[in-house]
């Protein structure tokens, strides 16, 4: 059963194409950042290529062109087509030129001084050495064979090519002439045998024609043999008589039935007349043959008179004597014929029905007996003629076979004569002749090594090796190297970069970085993130903060970000939706309090329950909703309509909602929350997170159509291996207004987008007296 072709989903095909383009772009970014690897491999290959070019042995080439002309296409290539010559003859002679016997002949004819390529090589390997440097090929679509030889000396290359071509010509000449006599001897014996067979077949054909009495009628002619014609004629007569007999038997049966049933037999008279004949019926009724003859003659005369009258009436009037005379003749004839028919009808009427029936039955039986006798005679004659015709066909088929054998043997005999004559005439020439059309020329330019080919090979090998090395390094080093690479590969902007905060075991909102040290450079990064979200074109009043893996610092970052929003006069609610491991609740020292899980599981009014569970943080404008008791089904709670109703209520009360969720790859909670908010802020650590982990996280959000507003790069330290993610060594500090001077203002490197954004935001939001200063 034939299987239906698989239907490719256009969305799947588009996703595959997009994935391929994405991977290609990512590899292009990796190549750009590791272009030094390509440069190193290219330099190494060029050095090796130059060394090879300088030290490699120079080889020089000489080439001769041979034209292969075929004489007698009927002998060498059946059909005599150019295609047969290219497919059979040319490949054969290409192999002959590089055969051991031809090369050995060339070596014997080669002068001692021209055996440079054979020096220090054992004699049993000379043929292999020559064949290794020899190239023989036929030019496609032509009868030309090119013979090329490479040697360390250009003069030796020319000498070797001439020696090989001469050895090949001598080999072909000697081979053909040594076998020509043997071929003629074999062909002569074969011709004599065929001649004897031809004479025997002709005698057999002559005897068969004499026995048959051949009249020269062949199966191809349209003339039928007399024996066959006689059988066909008898067959036609037999069919006719057989039909008459069956008709007479039917009439006889009908008459007997009519007599038996007492039916009036007058209606059968016409049928009997058609069966036995009118004359026989009249004789049976007592009329003589003369009466019947006179009646027939008068009927013919009546027809003639009628025709003459019609002709005369076209030219003469009705009163004309000739017209009148013809009318009288016609009238008298008609009266006589009518009287004759009346007499017949009277005679039939006078006879008894039984007498008439017996008479007609007798006459039909008599005619039937005649027909049966004639049919038997014709059947015997036809059977004899049919047997003669069948025998004739067998003898004619035998004659036809003999004629075919005689013709075939004659053609084969003539072909052998032509072949023998052709070989006799070509004793001094070859059936396939080879002519030099291009003589080998001394070429002082080496064909190996070639400088352009060497350069091209070095470039290709160097670039290919470099790309392969980058691909392998990229697989082994599964981390982002620069902020540009991260943004390009993930397709998500970097909103802010947070420096490594000082470790602290204390809990509470007063221990947050932005609250404890608002003037520090580390705190400014949270304000930068706040401003980047505020200035984005997308609505960011409801945000969920997550990370790819546990331990990325999302909870601490979100708490400081919430404090930054509150400091900007926005009424902010900080929600701990990590119902599995509520880190925010622990950081803000709110363990054991009712919170989000109780609101979702409760049945009371959401506003009333929220008023009981939401706690003031201690920072003006910032409220906190702890996670509450840990539930057994956190994913189901977050997917419930009660949670969505709570978010809708909170959006009407607060200006900014910030929701802490579990790591994105660990659970599906972030996806459940993300479908209800404006977007996700993804907290990453370049020194910790793997590239594939980040890519998988972003692709998961994109697949679920959850917008990722940006990345917050966390825990950047000056001594870290990823310090090039930071501000390039620049920080912020407070100075007195009167201590500011133009020479203390640092020109920040604005080429880094993160630095440029930080500088812009610092200028917009920094309190009076804050100026950028180079970090110590």
Structural class: alpha/beta
Count, helices: 26
What global shape is seen? flat
**Subunit arrangement of the protein:** single chain
Please state the CA-atom Rg, rounded to the nearest Å: 61 Å
Helix content: 55-70%
Q: Work out the strand percent.
A: 5-15%
**In angstroms, what separates the terminal alpha carbons?**
80 Å
Strand line-up across the major sheet: 5-12-11-6-10-7-9-8
Number-wise, the strands total 14
Mean pLDDT: 76
Low-pLDDT parts are: 73-82, 719-776
Provide keyphrases for this structure.
disordered C terminus, eight-stranded mixed beta sheet, four-stranded antiparallel beta sheet, alpha/beta
Describe the fold and architecture.
With 776 residues, this protein is α/β, with parallel strands linked by helices. The chain is 59% helix and 11% strand. The chain has 26 helices and 14 strands. It has helices at residues 10-33, 35-55, 73-76, 82-97, 100-109, 126-133, 154-212, 226-261, 269-276, 278-285, 289-313, 321-350, 353-425, 451-476, 483-490, 513-516, 521-535, 554-567, 583-587, 596-601, 606-613, 634-638, 641-653, 669-674, 691-703, 753-765, and strands spanning 60-70, 134-138, 144-151, 432-438, 494-499, 542-546, 572-576, 615-616, 622-625, 656-660, 679-684, 708-716, 730-734, 770-774. It has an 8-stranded mixed sheet, with helices on both faces. Strands 2-3-1-4 form a 4-stranded antiparallel sheet. Strands 13-14 form a two-stranded antiparallel ribbon. Strand 11 (679-684), helix 25 and strand 12 form a beta-alpha-beta unit. Helix 5 packs across helix 7. The longest helix has 73 residues, at 353-425. The chain is flat, with a radius of gyration of 61 Å. The two termini are 80 Å apart.
